[in-house]
Amino acid sequence: MINQGVPSRIFDRTRIFRGAMLSPGAIVTFVLVLFAVSLVVFLSFRINDGSLLGAGISVQNFATVISDPLYGLVVLRSLTIAGLVTLATVVTAYPVAYYLAFHAGQRRSLILFLVTLPFWTSYLLRVFAWKIVLAYNGVLNSALMLSGLSSEPSTLFLNTPSAVVLTLAHAYAPFAILPIFVALETIPRSLVEAAADLGARPFTTFRRVILPNSMPGVLSAAVVVFVPTVGDYVTPALIGGPTSTMIGSLVQAQFGKANDWPFGAALAVMVMLVILAVVLVVRQADRLFGSRT
């Protein structure tokens, strides 16, 4: 007679094991993500009365953010800088990922090591390194003066939006290279060979086969770069100066010097909504490319 209890006990053990493996991640997600976001949303509807969590319920914080043109200008500047960073990062990362996927050969491991090497150093150290390069008496100005191309140091390199774009594009380059590389690596080589057998030239093969099939990786890289750069405040503060103030700097100021947590939370919520809208647009574009390929 077959013991019906054995499969049931095995199923129960499997379910307990899965629950035990998933519970740490679920707890971390709830405590560090859902609870934190819920607290920020709750704070955004409070009134600043000097206490930690504010008092009362009001939409005045959101009304101020929407009605004051200063915040609209800063949000627009943040989106513009983040968009330029994303464009620059993806455009420069794609050739590296393409070389890794199709031409690196035995050098692939070494190049991947070099790509991930910036992760070994602090983000803050990389920002300070660019500040040393772009400063008034920095490496770039010194090199221009030694080469005779400039007679005096220039103030055009540091404390500009271009410096912020350059620094952020360098800092987030690995985040763009790796998703694009994975997408290119998963393209069946038989498709490339079939295109060549049908007489397609290399550029035509790239345009009709490789690029469309790698677009999910490109869009993923764009999201991974765009989302953190919108709210970045360290790089604009150290590299950009007053003319490059982004929304992250305003949020940090409200939670810091201004000590107005409800208004800072409202700014953060508005940024999250803008990022959510961008992510939904990218997701729709991903579906469009997926249906075409």
From TrEMBL:
Keywords assigned by UniProt, alphabetized: Cell membrane, Membrane, Transmembrane, Transmembrane helix, Transport
One Pfam short name: BPD_transp_1
Localization: Cell membrane
CDD domains: TM_PBP2
Domain ABC transmembrane type-1 residue range list: 75-282
Annotated Gene Ontology cellular component terms: plasma membrane
Alphabetical list of Gene3D superfamilies matching this protein: MetI-like
Organism superkingdom: Bacteria
Predominant cellular place of this UniProt entry's protein: membrane
Parts of the chain that traverse the membrane: 21-45, 79-100, 112-136, 156-184, 217-241, 261-282
GO process annotations (BP): transmembrane transport
Membrane topology according to the record: Multi-pass membrane protein
Similarity annotation: Belongs to the binding-protein-dependent transport system permease family. CysTW subfamily.
PANTHER family: INNER MEMBRANE ABC TRANSPORTER PERMEASE PROTEIN YDCU-RELATED (PTHR42929:SF1), INNER MEMBRANE ABC TRANSPORTER PERMEASE PROTEIN YDCU-RELATED-RELATED (PTHR42929)
Official protein name in the record: Spermidine/putrescine transport system permease protein
Organism of derivation: Rhizobium lusitanum
